[in-house]
Amino acid sequence: MTENPITARCECGATAGPLGVCADYYHQILSDEQADPQMYSWHTPVVLAYLLQHPSRAREKYLDGQFRQLQLYVDKGLDALLRVAAHQVARNRHGSQSGYDMAPLEPYEPLPAGGPPARFRTGFSALPVREGSFVADGHAAYGRHIELIAEATVEAWRSLQS
């Protein structure tokens, strides 16, 4: 028996939206980013939030760093996150140092034990899609939706510490 897409539940606890479950949204976002460089600006927080809301699709050993990066994004914004990412790429390109430079992420909390959270205040299947586009209302509105998903992700993981 096929599950009704309207009542389908995602790993993150969300119900399916018009495009399906979160994985359907995530894959559509990744596809759309290829044709829209401005939308691609939010690629890193999209990936971080998706993997933290759906950790079965992630490598467990990277989740702590991804959680810290998402906290950096929520705390200091997209430009700060992209600067840290560019620093890592430049560092790796020069080959002079091995491993990830955790110094920019040290102020942020480690990934709490006991996860993942059962639910998140908002997630990918709640993203508005109009006329087949995530950016029909503009890139700033899309960025704000990604920010809300990131905030909800950090909030839910932090709630495990209580």
Question: Could you outline the blueprint of secondary structure elements for this entry?
Answer:
Elements: H1 22-35, H2 37-40, H3 43-53, H4 60-76, H5 78-94, H6 139-158
InterPro entries: DUF5946
List keywords for this structure.
162 residues; mainly alpha; 6 helices; 0% strand; globular
- Count of beta strands: 0
Number of helices: 6
Distance between the termini: 40 Å
Provide the gyration radius in Å.
Answer: 16 Å
- What pattern of helices and strands is seen along the backbone? HHHHHH
What's the rounded overall pLDDT mean? Answer: 90
Shape: globular
Helix content: 40-55%
Counted up, domains total 1
Q: How large is the share of residues in beta strands? A: under 5%
Major sheet attributes: none
- What structural class should be given to the helix and strand makeup? mainly alpha
Uncertain runs are 1-5
Describe the protein in words:
51% of the residues lie in helices and 0% in strands. It is built from 6 helices and no strands. α1 runs antiparallel to α3 (43-53), α3 (43-53) packs across α4 and α4 crosses α6 (139-158). It is globular. 30% of the residues are buried.
Outline of this structure?
This protein has 162 residues and is mostly helical. Helix content is 51%, strand content 0%. The longest helix is centred in the C-terminal third of the chain and has 20 residues, at 139-158.
